[in-house]
Amino acid sequence: MSYRLGIDVGGTNTDAVIIDNELNVISKAKHPTTTDVSTGIYNVINKVLNGCDLCNTDIEYAMLGTTHCANAIVERKNLNNIAIVRIGKPATQAVKPLIDWPEELKNAIGGYSFLVSGGHEYDGEEIAELDEEEIRNIAKEIKGKVSSIAITSVFSPVNDEFEERAKEILNEELEDVSFSLSNEIGSIGLVERENATILNAAVVNAAEEAVRAFKKALKSHGIEAKKYFGQNDGTLMSVDYALQYPILTIASGPTNSIRGAASLAGLEEGIVVDVGGTTTDIGALQKGFPRESAISVEIGGVKTNFRMPDLITLGLGGGSIVNNQENGIKIGPESVGYRITEESLIFGGETLTATDISVAKKISEIGDPSNVKDLENDLVERAHEKIVSMVEEGIDRMKTSPQALPTALVGGGSVLLPQELKGVSEVYKPNNFEVANAIGVAIAQVSGEIEKIFNIDEIPRDKALDKAKDMAREEAIEAGADPDTIEIVNVEDVPLAYLPGNATRISVKAAGQLRH
Amino acid sequence: MREIGKEELNDIAVGAAVLGTGGGGDPYIGKLMAIQAVEEYGPITLLDPDELNDDDLILPGAMMGAPTVLVEKVPSGDEVFNAFESLENYLGEEVKATMPIEAGGVNSMIPFALAARMGIPVVDADGMGRAFPELQMVTFTIYGASATPMALADEKGNNLILNTIDNKWTEDLARGATVTMGGSVMIANYPLSGEKVKEAGIKNIVTFAEEIGRAIRTAKNKKTDPVKALKEVTGGFPLFEGKVVDIKRKTKGGFARGEAEIEGINSYNGQTLTLNFQNEHLVAKVDEEVIASVPDLITVHDKETGQPITTEGMKYGNRVLVMGIPCTDKWRCEKGLELVGPKYFGYDIEYTPIEELASKKGSE
Predict the structure, then answer these.
(1) Which residues in chain B have their CB less than 8 angstroms from residue A88's CB?
(2) What angle do CA B311, B316, B319 make, to 5 degrees?
(3) From CA A423, how far away is CA B11, in angstroms rounded?
């Protein structure tokens, strides 16, 4: 029998589960996320191993899901100070970088944005030469001021030469900066691809922290398992891949908890509410998987061209700070996060949090209830009402008709919520609800994805599709999937206008269970 | 006369995507251009066509070329300005206002970006009442207006003026130039008198787009049924509900042609709808029977939100609502159908207005 260790690092808690081949939960544990994420992961592994009679060598796979990158964007915290370099002048000036971005997020990533000469036409020919002097001048201006750079050039998915060259020049002049190149992140559609690239650049810090912590913690326990990261679509990716493309982990937390919740509650259709320490994610279930958004998805208020689950994220969690203001109660988005065990009232701290309200309201029993018995009844009622109405509104927004739907509440912060909610036919609080994320990532499949341009005039479409599917299947097998369980989960083919030979971009994704 | 700001632009953009009937390009990039221009130069005035004097010179502005190129090689903002200036100089007359040629898709927005920058109003009218793939496919052609003199300009600073013998020639020459200039250019064409706009234009189409956009937004905010809202605001007919099971696309002569197959759900269970498109949706058939065709509008929406889905954005597994919306009466004449009827697009079908097809279906 081989076992999998699934770990989910949330803003507040780090959860872990060990499951067996048949996906049964053998052990589960929860530990506050620590300032140095590593200790939290180390401790939770300790706990989860202690909770069963397995030893470190029994663990064959270790999967990490983390909402680090998503939290960084929602809270506008721990984001890299970045520089945006768009290669596109004289074109593209009619829509400047960041035009559609929320003010605070713009401010959080710093004000370095450059539009330089260059870019390609649709056929890969230059529109204008790359002005290398301009790039060197940028390097002088941002030296020592930024840690990550997002480079986007017009038609880089067709010709990546200018992005690569700009990176080379900047790399000569600057030290210790990460590069995010748009051609590696998105496809045609300058603004959305640039947005995604900027976000990728901004969350590099958060991702590095998570990876370091994961490796270190496993090593300290002598676990030599194969390591994976959970990604947006609910499948797994390698650690190296995750470091380069941290943006692909951005929705893994909610995705994993939706998958975990579906499995725990035995729901195929309905709503999942995952309340963490800092944020609440609300998603919809379709056949046990997160409903995918049909339209381009906004991350932190920014339009990108990702394939993402359809989600609403609220700045509400167990650690959310409760403020009694003149114009009403305000809950979050600021959160004490992992410091909840020091700062919240029930743990002897000074800050009124959402969890304090739930204890005062006697919905949950955590910490020392006597610390909140003197809270004004009116304040508790109003704060509780506010929390419930925030979630009810979120559920309502995810629904597609007024019809009441079954709803699974998961995540450690779900203790904030009562047993009945407006617009919900039945509230499920399944067993192991507090570790749904970790279960979701532990049961995740592995996938293989290919994207290739086929010349349909030479190879007929059917044959090209078959070939692409075979290639994706191969990739999935290489990534560790059991060949007998592989299914093609996504097929897309889009002809590229104006290219000779009826060139068509075909992308295929195949996914299957981990091979034992 | 009224003012158009950011909020109005947002609603118009959504409505324009519906009127784009799957094509016309995603208005998003045009909307960002218009918003940036409004931020830099201030709000825009929208004029009712009846407010025009008969001898006013109106010059429509638009983009021409592949929308996929436009969204990647975003304009500099100077192109349409250059096209306007050179045509204004050529005509030797001051332009009173601009207007959209096509209210569907990205071209609904270009005149607003231009108007903000030039400080001129936009007229609430267009020449299609929707989106069409070719330049001569405007009601102005039926009424004898010429597309030329016409100006084309690219982001590199090139611009040219065309004078042609008919609007089909304009289309062919301009299409060739567009490819040479990089696949996406800005144009100013169909210089019209105020009198002609009133006679040949489709009046209040911008306001119509805005109402559609507002209806979809309101349905979302108030959690009411988007299908019902769409039906009410457009006077259209829900044709089908289903799941996209296959899409074949081919790029031919600069146009994305293709076919989508939609498997029926709910009351359409067991039926299959086939959509034929060339940038825009042209013909909808259920089990070989035509249920809608150009020039009527065939629109595809996300079943849950009512948001329009483009032919490019359509993916396997999308749950969609297909609607048929009657086109302007101006198209429903011999000349109009010659320009934009199913036969022009290569389908051997007699055009029957959507109202008749729908009532026939209803009585079956």
Answers:
(1) 73-74
(2) 85
(3) 29
